[in-house]
């Protein structure tokens, strides 16, 4: 570094040094700005992020101008001949360009790594000298000591923790070198400064004992015991207790190690040259608070409760297993004073072979300083020696990217003093069955994903383009690897807008292209492929063909239809895919794709399977849903007009639904998949199945939002029209008209009913004409035109009678009775409605009985007979609830509230109207506002 070079010091107060002399930065904000730029040395930092860090949520109106002023001040301090340090303007931000060595924190970390490497090779004097040199760079007890920004404080905490680790390692190396007396005073001061850091107390006890001061070593233990008991209410950790016992019995194994030149070939590792193999923690780690808490619980588990403590972090490729494990391991490293072992087992490495247990054990035994001559040649011998070496130690073992239990089992310590953390794409159910704690990772939620992007893209674009950021989060479906790839692309290409990146991610055929990377370890296709290639041929085929399923999740029965096999075989294949985390099982018996894995599955299907294979799989799936749904709809409403379906194709096994209750449960569980299948059928040209499946969903959809139904029936009507089947078109038109009517679109509903009526007249379909007239009557009633409504209901009755359609006749009688009630003739209304109820009861039509009970309740209410009215309304409610008919239930709650209010029970009326309003709101129904007006009038 030249004599006039710029140097940045953060190991203590933030300083800028020019030519060896501090350059004054008296104001706090410019010092903090320098610290923020140093956090991202040689990387662009956005204006918005800098302003947020400098002033928080309430920046001054002049923030941008003030920021430019601070940058100008720093640039003036950085001016110098021949030095390449400079602050450059970038699009919406700045970048501080300098050599890494110009920052004391970089030099500290470099020296610390070099010192640790020497310690690993038992070169204690040299290693301790480098560690001392690294610690000499510190100018105070805390890094970034006078910087105020949150991001700076986060980095400061990491550096401060690293400093303490280096102090411990340095003192341990000096004790190992055989000179304990020189370090004891420092250890006494450090245990006073950091009283609950057990690693320092352990070194103090060892140092005192090694110096021949056994009684003082035992007294140090008593001091620690009292301190932990008073301050935290806990005991010292098992390794400290074990060291105490060994000092009490004057264990010769605690003597300082003999220099390596004397003890060549000895198998016993040094007790103080502890391995520190953890890789660097991920910067800006985000979320996972629940999972971190679960891992923290392992630290307080009673040692005597079980054998070795093991946790398995599992999840699909790119879900962040390694990031979580390494982050937590660093966070608790001080709880494992005998060291941390780490190995990437490469179980699903896209470019390498998995590490064998023999290779892994050799790696760990070398880290524990086992001499080559003492290394057993067989796997069992290596595993036994490994367990022996860890038996009296508290070590954290991190086994990353494990393939299966066979790869992991020989690497597990034998005692509860150590803890093993395993990450894998497989579920490792065998490990969990033997007592391991299972932590299955899902994607980040939207809030954490948003924070992830904000921290990884420091130029403020996520805040400046919130809609684009939200679309990126949606496309990545919470997958941290995908989010990281997008963030890296955005950071390296500050000229790219997030809107453009989001658009590429939402183009289905380009989604994985937008997440491609030259590095196979982070290229999403390559990462996924390393899981896919491990599948059996049958499960790989099912994985590909499942991409034809349009719903959010799938059952074994539906998967069997896709694959063309039995449900039991499909269940086994789904379990295999779930074990490999290519599918998830969000609820028992229902399996789902991560969105990006679905895209990968579809790509594979497009290249491996023929168009005929995919079409056949789609057709089998639609036939499975159609025949199951049709049978279910007939159980729910046997009086509904039937439609003709083709026979069940060979190889398709519809679900055997026993009764109406089981049918409604099936519809409730499969609702999202069924509605998606209707649209899927239309998109792929299966028009007959589209309208037929939609028709079977009428009773199920009646419980959902009418807006959704409107879209559904429009799709089905267009499909029916394409088939040329005018009878089918007329049926579906009426359902679309009903949805429009319920949404208050009476003119559109009227026009649709006119077309349905015309089609039925051309076909001489009397029942279809009657249905249209009856629905016309309901429309007239909604518009307050009672005479026209009654006329339409009488026309419907005549046509139903001519066709011998008994449930239709009953519904028409109820319609006439309702019209009389609306015109004020309540006695005549009762006569018609009672006749309707008798007919409906005789044929077992519960849907009609519910509507007619509501009409009878209304007539009694208007006659002033409130107790009878309430009884009929409650009967209607019970029927509607049993049928899952939400809209009917809501309307009856309104009427029940009216009767209760008229009877003087205001509190009951309020409860009924609130229930009605809530249901109408869920359905998107136009009557919700009228109910709220009733509630407002009660205030």
Task: Write a short abstract of this structure.
Residues 1-98 form the OmpR/PhoB-type domain. Pfam families: BTAD, TPR_12, TPR_7, Trans_reg_C. The protein has 939 residues and is α/β, with parallel strands linked by helices.
Structural class based on helices, strands and sheet pairing: alpha/beta
Count of runs of 4 or more consecutive helical residues: 42
Q: How would you describe the shape?
A: elongated
CATH third-tier fold name of the domain at 1-177: Arc Repressor Mutant, subunit A
Could you characterize what this model shows?
The protein is elongated, with a radius of gyration of 37 Å. It contains 42 helices and 13 strands. A 5-stranded parallel β-sheet has the order 8-9-10-7-11, with helices on both faces. A 3-stranded antiparallel β-sheet has the order 1-2-3, with no helix packed on it. A 3-stranded antiparallel β-sheet has the order 4-6-5. Strand 1 and strand 2 form a beta hairpin. It is α/β, with parallel strands linked by helices and 939 residues long. Among the domains are: 1-177, Arc Repressor Mutant, subunit A (Orthogonal Bundle), CATH 1.10.10.10; 289-440, Rossmann fold, CATH 3.40.50; 446-524. The longest helix has 27 residues, at 150-176.
Structure keywords:
WH-like_DNA-bd_sf; P-loop_NTPase; alpha/beta; Rossmann fold; TPR_rpt; transcription regulation; transcription; Arc Repressor Mutant, subunit A; 939 residues
């Amino acid at each position: 570094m030249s004599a006039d070079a710029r140097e940045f010091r953060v190991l203590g107060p933030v300083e800028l040094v020019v030519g060896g002399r501090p350059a004054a930065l008296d104001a706090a904000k410019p010092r903090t700005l320098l610290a923020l730029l140093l956090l991202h040395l040689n990387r662009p930092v956005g204006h918005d992020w800098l302003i947020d860090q400098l002033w928080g949520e309430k920046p001054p109106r002049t923030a941008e101008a003030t920021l430019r002023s601070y940058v100008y001040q720093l640039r003036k301090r950085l001016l110098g001949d021949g030095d390449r340090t400079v602050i450059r303007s970038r699009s919406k931000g700045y970048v501080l360009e300098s050599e890494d060595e110009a920052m004391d924190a970089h030099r500290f970390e470099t020296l610390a790594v070099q010192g640790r490497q020497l310690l690993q090779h038992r070169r204690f004097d040299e290693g301790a000298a480098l560690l001392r040199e690294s610690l000499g760079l510190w100018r105070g007890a805390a890094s970034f000591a006078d910087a105020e920004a949150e991001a700076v404080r986060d980095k400061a905490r990491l550096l401060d923790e690293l400093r303490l680790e280096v102090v411990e390692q340095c003192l341990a190396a000096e004790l190992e070198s055989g000179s304990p007396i020189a370090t004891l005073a420092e250890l006494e001061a450090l245990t006073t400064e950091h009283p609950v850091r057990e690693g320092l107390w352990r070194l103090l006890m060892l140092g005192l004992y090694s110096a021949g001061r056994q009684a003082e070593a035992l007294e140090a233990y008593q001091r620690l015991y009292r301190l932990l008991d008073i301050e935290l209410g806990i005991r010292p950790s098992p390794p400290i207790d074990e060291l105490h016992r060994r000092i009490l019995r004057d264990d010769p194994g605690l003597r300082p190690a003999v220099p390596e030149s004397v003890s060549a070939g000895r198998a016993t590792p040094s007790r103080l040259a502890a391995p520190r193999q953890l890789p660097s923690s991920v910067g800006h780690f985000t979320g996972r608070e629940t999972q971190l808490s679960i891992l923290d619980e392992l630290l307080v588990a009673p040692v005597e409760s079980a054998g070795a403590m093991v946790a398995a972090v599992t999840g699909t490729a790119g879900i962040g297993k390694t990031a979580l494990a390494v982050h937590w391991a660093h966070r608790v490293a001080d709880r494992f004073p005998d060291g941390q072992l780490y190995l990437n087992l490469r179980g699903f490495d896209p470019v390498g072979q998995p590490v064998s247990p023999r290779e892994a054990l050799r790696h760990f035994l070398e880290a524990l300083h086992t001499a080559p001559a003492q290394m057993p040649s067989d796997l069992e011998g290596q595993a036994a020696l490994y367990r022996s070496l860890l038996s009296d130690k508290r070590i954290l073992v991190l086994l990353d990217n494990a393939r299966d239990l066979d790869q992991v089992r020989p690497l597990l310590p034998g005692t509860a003093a150590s803890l093993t953390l395993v990450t894998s794409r497989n579920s490792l159910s065998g490990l969990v069955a033997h007592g391991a704690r299972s932590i299955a990772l899902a994607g980040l939620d939207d809030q954490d994903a948003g924070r992830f992007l904000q921290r990884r893209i420091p130029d403020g674009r996520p805040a400046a383009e919130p809609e684009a950021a939200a679309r990126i989060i949606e496309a990545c479906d919470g997958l941290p690897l995908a989010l990281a790839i997008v963030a890296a692309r955005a950071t390296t290409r500050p000229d790219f807008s997030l809107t453009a990146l989001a658009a590429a991610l939402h183009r289905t055929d380009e989604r994985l292209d937008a997440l491609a990377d030259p590095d196979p370890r982070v290229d999403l296709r390559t990462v996924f492929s390393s899981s896919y290639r491990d599948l059996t041929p049958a499960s790989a085929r099912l994985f590909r063909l499942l991409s034809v399923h349009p719903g959010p999740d799938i059952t074994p029965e539906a998967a069997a239809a896709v694959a063309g096999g039995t449900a039991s075989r499909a269940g086994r294949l789904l379990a295999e895919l779930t074990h490999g985390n290519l599918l998830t099982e969000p609820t028992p018996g229902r399996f789902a794709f991560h969105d990006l894995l679905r895209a990968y599955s579809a790509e594979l299907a497009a290249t491996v399977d023929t168009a005929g294979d995919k079409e056949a799989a789609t057709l089998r799936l639609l036939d499975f849903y159609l025949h199951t749904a049709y049978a279910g709809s007939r159980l729910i409403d046997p009086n509904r007009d039937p439609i003709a379906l083709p026979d069940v194709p060979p190889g398709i096994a519809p679900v055997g639904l026993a009764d109406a209750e089981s049918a409604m449960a099936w519809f409730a569980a499969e609702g999202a998949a069924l509605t998606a299948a209707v649209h899927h059928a239309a998109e792929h040209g299966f028009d007959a199945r589209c309208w037929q499946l939609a028709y079977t969903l009428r009773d199920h959809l009646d419980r959902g939002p009418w807006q959704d139904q409107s879209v559904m029936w429009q799709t089905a009507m267009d499909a029916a029209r394409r088939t040329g089947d005018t009878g089918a078109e007329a049926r579906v038109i009426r359902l679309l008209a009903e949805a429009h009517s319920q949404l208050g679109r009476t003119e559109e509903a009227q026009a649709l009913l006119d077309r349905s009526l015309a089609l039925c007249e051309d076909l001489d379909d009397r029942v279809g004409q009657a249905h249209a007239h009856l629905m016309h009557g309901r429309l007239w009633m909604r518009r307050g035109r009672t005479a026209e409504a009654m006329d339409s209901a009488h026309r419907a009755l005549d046509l139903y009678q001519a066709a011998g359609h008994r449930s239709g006749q009953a519904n028409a009688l109820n319609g006439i009775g309702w019209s009389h009630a609306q015109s004020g003739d309540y006695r005549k209304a009762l006569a018609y409605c009672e006749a309707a109820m008798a007919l409906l009861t005789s044929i077992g039509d519960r849907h009609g009985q519910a509507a007619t009970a509501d009409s009878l309740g209304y007539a009694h209410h208007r006659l002033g007979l409130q107790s009878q009215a309430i009884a009929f309304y409650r009967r209607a409610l019970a029927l509607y609830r049993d049928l899952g008919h939400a809209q009917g239930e809501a309307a009856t709650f309104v009427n029940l509230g009216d009767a209760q209010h008229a009877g003087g029970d205001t509190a009951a009326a309020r409860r009924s109207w609130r229930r009605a309003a809530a249901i109408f709101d869920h359905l998107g129904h136009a009557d919700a506002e009228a109910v709220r007006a009733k509630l407002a009038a009660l205030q």
